[in-house]
Specification:
This protein has 303 residues and is an alpha/beta fold. It is 48% helix and 14% strand. The protein has one domain: TIM Barrel (Alpha-Beta Barrel). The protein has an 8-stranded parallel β-barrel with strand order 1-2-3-4-5-6-7-8, surrounded by 5 helices. The longest helix is centred in the last third of the chain and has 20 residues. Bound molecules: flavin-adenine dinucleotide (FAD).
């Protein structure tokens, strides 16, 4: 149609071609340990569908207060046993003595796990965080403890919109530096929707002399109402344009998935245009959205 051709300006053509050209980024995927047999089956279906995208690593979360200790361990073990993937086990400080945390870390080391995502964790059931009297107080203490056990690769958390309990962005940078000094070599961000939040975090890290990779955490929206609720709890803001974009879509899951995949792919493309080449996907144990985004970024599952 003539008008369509006229509207497709030269700049837009170049941009579209740019989106689909060049080498794809690298990715990692986050899963949570399943509670039921049915959830286990759907997790493994998701892992099977996403594995061919050759993620750099796949991480498995650790429930509040160690509530998923056995399930996290079992999932990580099965990843080691049955897949070519490199697992990263999350581990937290909450409600456990150092001895207990160390014994979990030793089990991982003995099983061949070499990558830990080290976190403080949040209090079980909400409220103010109180360290265990014999426990690690902060994530930086945990990182140091892990390094005493084995030469783990250690990733830690960062927060583009500031950690909710932190008084300032400056403190967030000091805390990240302490985790790096203790041995962390990668930071993975809390998810965000406005990419400016991530880019400002990267600017602050650069200004603070931080050179480890800071990997954006990307959440493809599987359910908008739930994402809004969770975002309120973890301090990630939901911009008004997103509320408009997803209005009414939870009742139309197929349309919502298409919109969600397109949005996450656009976030990644904008971040790539700023030089970011690794993305960590919060998969919510569902493959289709993350697979669609990876495909749009140029990754191929070859299956
Ligand atoms: P920290 O780095 O210890 O920081 C926590 C707070 O303490 C911050 O406000 C910081 O400013 C403050 N602080 C740190 N050090 C000091 C100090 N020396 N003096 C004074 N204040 C200090 N939670 C889970 O339960 N299980 C998971 O598997 C999990 N995975 C996650 C993965 C990612 C990528 C992210 C981003 C978060 C994850 N979380 C998980 C959530 C995380 O545990 C919470 O956000 C928690 O509140 C902060 O963890 P942290 O490791 O950043 O803590």
């Amino acid at each position: 149609m003539t008008i369509g051709v006229t509207l497709l300006q030269e700049g837009n053509k170049t941009q579209l071609a740019g989106w689909f050209a060049g080498s794809p980024p690298s990715v990692s995927f986050e899963f949570f340990p399943p509670k039921t047999e049915a959830a286990e089956q759907s997790l493994w279906a998701a892992i099977t569908q996403l594995a061919p995208f050759s993620p750099g690593f796949v991480s498995v979360t650790y429930g509040a207060g160690g509530s998923t200790r056995e399930r996290t361990h079992a999932t990580v073990q099965r990843l080691l046993r049955e897949t070519p993937l490199t697992p990263a086990a999350h581990l937290t400080c909450v409600d456990a003595s150092r001895e207990e945390v160390d014994s979990v870390a030793r089990l991982y080391w003995d099983a061949g796990v070499r990558h830990i995502v080290a976190l403080r964790g949040d209090p079980v059931g909400g409220g103010a965080y109180m360290p265990h009297p014999q426990g690690y107080t902060y994530a930086s203490d945990l990182v140091a403890g892990l390094k005493r056990i084995g030469d783990f690769e250690i990733s830690v958390a960062v927060f583009p919109e500031k950690h909710p309990e932190s008084p300032s962005f400056e403190q967030d940078m000091d805390v990240l530096k302490a985790k790096i000094d203790a041995g962390a070599t990668r930071a993975i961000s809390q998810y965000f929707f406005d990419i400016e939040h991530f880019l400002r975090l990267r600017d602050r890290a650069q200004a603070a002399g931080i050179t480890i990779p800071i990997v954006p955490g990307i959440l493809p929206i599987a359910n908008f109402a739930q994402a809004e609720k969770f975002s309120r709890m973890c301090g990630a803001s939901v911009p008004p344009w997103m509320q408009a974009l997803f209005a009414g879509l939870d009742a139309q899951p197929q349309a919502r998935d298409l919109v969600a995949a397109q949005l996450a792919a656009t976030q990644c493309r904008l971040l790539r245009s700023e030089g970011i080449e690794h993305f960590h996907f919060y998969t919510m144990n569902r493959a289709p959205l993350t697979a669609a985004v990876c495909h749009m970024l140029g990754l191929r599952s070859n299956c």
